[in-house]
TrEMBL record:
It comes from Salvelinus namaycush. Mitochondrial cysteine-specific aminoacyl-tRNA synthetase that catalyzes the ATP-dependent ligation of cysteine to tRNA(Cys). In addition to its role as an aminoacyl-tRNA synthetase, has also cysteine persulfide synthase activity. Produces reactive persulfide species such as cysteine persulfide (CysSSH) from substrate cysteine and mediate direct incorporation of CysSSH into proteins during translations, resulting in protein persulfides and polysulfides. CysSSHs behave as potent antioxidants and cellular protectants. PANTHER family: CYSTEINE--TRNA LIGASE, MITOCHONDRIAL-RELATED, CYSTEINYL-TRNA SYNTHETASE. This is Probable cysteine--tRNA ligase, mitochondrial. One of its GO terms (molecular function) is cysteine-tRNA ligase activity. The lineage of its organism: Eukaryota, Metazoa, Chordata, Craniata, Vertebrata. Its cofactor is Zn(2+). The gene is LOC120033595. Residues 548-573 are annotated as: Disordered.
Length: 573
């Protein structure tokens, strides 16, 4: 039998604060001065200490912002990861800082799904009502709804252009107002929020004691501005009373609209309930947004650990600047403008070259590195295919060593991805594989009739293509090739042109047998007659290169490839 005790009210309040979310003890108030202590059946966790979840151990490790270190990734259900992410506030164009975060987490979700067989259930909120949206709508003399829908559609198109997989569902704030109101009512019932005479509702940070600050620790920040009825300067708005010229909805506290943080807590809880595996966002959202989300959810669900893992992506900085790329700083490049000069593949490779939680510098040099890596892979692909077709003659290949190198690379890639999704290590492993493959593809002028090994290079190409396909990089450029010429006519024309040039070049390089009675000194004259043909072949090769068609002469044979041609003057941004 659990005890019922009588205590003075000040001590009662302290006990309720201390044990409000304990996994071990649940308190029931049976009179103004009596509490019943009993075991709790709610969520796990006590205080600020992180508790390792019970469930399915994936064998992966990921950096958890709640503990500031790598932790084993344990999911509530085997083979399923519940994932919530903060989507955009749709009042302006999305920029590369946003793109960097969304692409990085898209890479992680692809890895979980394609490499480790985990079904990621991803939900994203669209913030379509906010102070910024209201201000911008007034500036443009249009309704906030029209403005939000316009930029929401642009955001989704930007994500599609960047090859970011859409979530299972996008959920708009304005379509979840009844759920938000009910969530706030639940927090008030649990005595962790209060309404003011003006019709605002604030979260009562003092009611949860030292539990506030799981992500960023105790902070002395003054909190968001509000009316003088706030109990604590750190208290933040759950509901904002209606103001003139602002959209509003009915509520028990009068007409108004949701605060910023409550939308995410409500929508995540409406889909996933009282426990969430993974929450993601940019590092700038850790405080106060994610901190306040945690406080709200644990107050509503009366649990000690709502979100088990918080993943944060690093900022994107302009080279030479300590400031992040931001609309408020007016130092951003829109996604649409960027994609006029660079491809989605190049941007994704740019993201892959740094760890997802690291800050990243945006510069011509860093983008050139991404372009160079892709170009190296493309060149190897064409050389390996030329070798497999018999168009590239090489010395004998050490086939056994290459098979061993491939097996070692596969193991290294899986280890890197299981260690906090370490994509720079993955790219390094692939580039090392390409290097060792290239060492065996050095052309020779005279074939030595040694055995050929095309199969191992086919395995190299298949694996490299598969890895980058998992990471979201399409080495085949299927979409771009389709947009250039869906019927393949361009490729067929280039093939015929290159073959004709190769035949002419072979004729010009050939040494004919001298007819009977022909003086020996006639040979130099005949060769000189063929020089214009060789010069014409070289001229054609150079002219085609300027158009994005690259012909490579390999002894008597030639190979070709088409690279993406950029408009003049748009190579750099």
């Amino acid at each position: 039998m659990w005890p019922c005790i009588t205590i003075f009210r000040p001590l009662l309040l302290k006990l309720r604060c201390r044990y409000a979310f304990s996994k071990d003890i649940q308190l029931t108030l049976v009179s103004p001065s009596k509490l019943i202590f009993r075991p709790s059946a709610s969520c796990t966790g006590v205080g600020k200490k992180w508790t390792r979840p019970t469930g399915y151990d994936t064998g992966l490790k990921t950096y958890n912002s709640l503990t500031k270190q790598k932790e084993p990734l344990v999911l509530a259900k085997e083979g399923i990861a519940t994932w919530y992410s903060c989507g955009p506030t749709v009042y302006d164009h999305a920029h590369l800082g946003h793109a960097c975060s969304y692409v990085r987490f898209d890479i992680i979700q692809r890895v979980l799904s394609r490499v480790f067989g985990i079904n990621v259930i991803h939900v994203m909120v669209i913030t379509d009502i906010d102070d910024k949206i209201i201000r911008r709508a007034l500036e443009k003399s249009i309704s906030p709804t029209v403005l939000a829908r316009m930029y929401e559609e642009e955001f989704k198109n930007d994500m599609l252009a960047l090859k970011v997989l859409p979530p299972a569902v996008y959920l708009r704030v304005t379509e979840n107002i009844p759920q938000i109101v009910a969530f706030i009512e639940g927090i008030i019932r649990n005595e962790h929020a209060y309404a003011t005479k003006q019709g605002d509702v604030y979260f009562d940070i003092g009611s949860i004691g030292d539990r506030y600050g799981k992500l960023m620790g105790a902070r002395d920040a003054a909190g968001e501005p509000g009316d003088t009825e706030k109990r604590d300067s750190r208290d933040f708005a759950l509901w904002k009373a209606s103001k003139p010229q602002e959209p509003s909805w009915e509520s028990p506290w009068g007409k108004g609209r949701p605060g910023w943080h409550i939308e995410c807590s409500t929508i995540a809880s409406s889909v996933f309930g009282s426990q969430l595996d993974i929450h993601s966002g940019g590092v700038d959202l850790a405080f106060p947004h994610h901190e306040n989300e945690i406080a709200q959810c644990e107050a509503y669900h009366q649990c000690g650990q709502w979100g088990n893992y918080f993943l944060h992506s690093g900022h994107l900085h302009l080279k030479g600047s300590a400031e992040k790329m931001s609309k408020s700083l007016n130092n951003y490049i829109s996604i649409k403008d960027f994609l006029e000069s660079y491809s989605a593949n190049e941007f994704r490779m740019f993201c892959l070259l740094t760890k997802y939680r690291s800050a990243i510098d945006y510069s011509d040099a860093s983008l050139n590195e991404a372009q160079s890596s892709l170009a190296t892979i493309t060149a190897f692909t064409h050389d390996a295919q030329a070798y497999m077709r018999g168009q590239l003659q090489c010395q004998a290949v050490q086939e056994g060593a290459l098979w061993e190198r491939l097996a070692e690379t596969k193991a290294n890639v899986v280890r890197a991805l299981a260690d906090d999704f370490d994509t720079p290590r993955v790219v390094n492993a692939i580039m090392s594989l390409v290097y060792h493959g290239n060492r065996h593809l050095q052309p020779v002028t005279k074939p030595d009739r040694s055995p050929r090994s095309p199969a191992v290079f086919g395995a190299f190409l298949t694996y490299i293509r598969e890895v980058f396909d998992v990471l979201g990089v399409d080495l085949l450029d299927r979409k771009e090739a389709h947009s250039v010429d869906s019927s393949g006519t361009l490729e067929n024309v280039v093939e015929q042109l290159a073959r004709f040039r190769s035949d002419v070049r072979a004729f010009a390089l050939s040494v004919e047998d001298m007819p009977p009675g022909e003086p020996a000194h006639a040979s130099p004259r005949q060769r000189s007659e063929k020089l214009p043909l060789l010069k014409a072949c070289d001229t054609l090769r150079k002219d085609l290169a300027s158009m994005g068609v690259h012909i490579r002469d390999r002894g008597p044979n030639s190979t070709w490839e088409i690279s993406q041609k950029r408009p003049a003057g748009q190579d750099k941004k």
